[in-house]
UniProtKB/TrEMBL annotation:
EC number(s) on file: 1.1.1.262
Gene3D superfamilies for this protein: Isopropylmalate Dehydrogenase (3.40.718.10)
Keyword terms: Metal-binding, NAD, Oxidoreductase
Organism: Xylanibacter caecicola
Lineage: Bacteria, Pseudomonadati, Bacteroidota, Bacteroidia, Bacteroidales
NCBIfam families in the record: pdxA (TIGR00557)
InterPro entries membership: PdxA_fam
GO molecular function: 4-hydroxythreonine-4-phosphate dehydrogenase activity
Record keyword Oxidoreductase present: yes
SUPFAM superfamilies: Isocitrate/Isopropylmalate dehydrogenase-like
Protein name: 4-hydroxythreonine-4-phosphate dehydrogenase PdxA
Short name of any one Pfam family annotated for the protein: PdxA
């Protein structure tokens, strides 16, 4: 019988004032997590000890300085302690420079471990951009930090849950600029990235649906020219290269079809075109409590030399430390990172 591969995953603490520590504690309190991987946390041991007490679990914190000191045992949370939070001044649910800095150094440590081959993949808990900037680190978010510190020039964001996977031609730019970024070369680039990622998830010949930019994918030029000049030529070239692609598919039907299994992945032309349907599927709002029951979905940065998977939700300062945050997205992130790491290990 083939020996089961259990990759080592570095999980970043996230902003300690948010729900990151809480959802990590919950995810690492489950047997199923340790059955699939060997997790450790990069961050502050004091914060993780505080989170365990807030959650009321019986877990112990194993304060370590290197991967080789980790126990990887259920009931023990291995924490590479960066001593980055002053517990005397720490306040949950508040934007603070020290918390932004703590999130940043936790990420940098995880990147360093992955680049050195000491861990097989990384999973990131949410950070707060305002706190990050107040802490002296002027990045837009995780993706840009990873790209900078790995020297990556071509990368893209992939959103994924169990059934829906979406990559974007552009993300954090104005809608007007996003239209200008719909170019054949970029469409081909991100389609290759999502196709390769789907293969890492175990799909031999992933079928990719490529969205149009305009209503009804322009209806043969009635509502715009981008489909004819940029998207259709990209689809034709991708088919010539052997990719299993369909498009341009009208944006108002693409994601519904993908959810029902017609496509293994979708290429969205801009941020909201992909994010809105993804979050409609994955986020469950409880109108009685006025809070999210769960926020399921992950954010994967493709094109990096290392694996990075993140929960696709924010720090939720309003509920931080109250024990109500759902670990669903963290569990899904660990699952995706595990599958991607195993795929890489088997290829090597």
């Amino acid at each position: 019988m083939k020996e089961q591969i259990k990759p080592i995953l570095a999980i970043t603490m996230g902003d300690p004032a948010g729900i990151g520590p809480e959802i990590i504690v919950k995810a690492l309190d489950l047997k199923e997590t340790y059955e699939k991987c060997r997790p450790l946390v990069t961050g502050d041991a004091g914060i993780m000890e505080w989170a365990v007490k807030q959650m009321g679990t019986a877990q112990k914190i194993n304060q370590i300085s290197s991967v080789r000191e980790a126990k990887f045992e259920l009931g023990t949370i291995d924490v590479i302690d960066l001593k980055c939070v002053d517990m005397d001044t720490f306040e949950p649910g508040k934007v603070a420079p020290q918390c932004g800095n703590a999130a940043f150094v936790s990420i940098i440590k995880a990147i360093e471990l992955a680049m050195a081959g000491e861990v097989d993949g990384t999973v990131t808990a949410p950070l707060n951009k305002e706190a990050l900037h107040k802490g002296g680190h002027n990045f837009d978010g995780h993706t840009e930090i990873y790209a900078h510190y790995t020297g990556t020039k071509k990368y893209a964001m992939l959103l994924a849950d169990e059934f829906l996977r979406v990559i974007h031609v552009s993300t954090h730019v104005s809608l007007r600029e996003a239209c200008d970024r719909v170019k054949k070369e970029r469409i081909i680039e991100v389609t290759e990235l999502i196709s390769n990622a789907c293969r890492q998830f175990g799909m031999e010949s992933p079928r990719i649906g490529i969205a149009g930019l305009n209503p009804h994918a322009s209806d043969n030029g009635l509502f715009g020219w981008e489909e004819e000049k940029e998207i259709i030529p990209a689809v034709e070239e991708l088919r010539q290269r052997g990719f299993n692609v369909d498009g341009p598919v009208p944006p108002d039907t693409l994601f519904a079809k993908a959810k029902c299994g017609k496509y293994d992945g979708c290429v969205a032309m801009y941020h909201d075109q992909g994010h809105i349907p993804f979050k409609v599927v994955g986020f469950n709002w409880n109108k009685e409590t006025g809070k999210m029951d769960s926020a399921k979905g992950v954010n994967i940065t493709l094109g990096l030399p290392i694996i990075r998977v993140s929960v696709d939700h924010g720090t939720a300062f309003d509920v931080a430390g109250k024990g109500v945050a759902s670990p669903d997205a963290m569990l899904l992130s660990i699952d995706y990172a595990t599958r991607m790491a195993i795929s890489r290990i088997e290829k090597n």
